[in-house]
Write a structure and sequence with these properties.
It is built from two helices and seven strands. Strand 5 (99-110) and strand 6 (113-122) form a beta hairpin. The protein has a single domain, classed as Hotdog Thioesterase (Thiol Ester Dehydrase, Chain A), CATH 3.10.129.10. A seven-stranded antiparallel β-sheet has the order 1-2-3-5-6-7-4, with helices on one face. The longest helix is centred in the middle third of the chain and has 19 residues, at 56-74. It is of the alpha+beta class.
Amino acid sequence: MQQEIRPACVPSGFTQAFDSVAFAGANGPLLLAHDPVRVGFHVERRHLDGAEQCHAGMLAFAADLLLIVTGRAQNEALGFVSTISLSGDSLAPARLGDWVEGAGEVVHMDGRTYIAQCLFRVGLTPVYRANGVFRG
């Protein structure tokens, strides 16, 4: 069961998204903001690894969705986008209750294939970076 998001805890401009995606519905909630495109979430107990830090798999999941939405924002004709490859690096821990927020950019687009990268932060501290190749 998803934990309800209290509006006072969510930065301005974010709305709950991705609920219709089965994996996202089970692992979110993830929130989305536009202009610029950003994805954010609060670290919940179920997102933690054995070291009481946000699991890198949760961060990779958020990065994947962020980079897909970022590409589609640049080229709406992409339609459904598949991830060809995704690579990420944990830079610092995100802890229980932290607001994790990421922004991305398309580095190169060639037709329906693009390369994108993103950086997630807790406050000013970078916690996760990722890059990937996607095809619409």
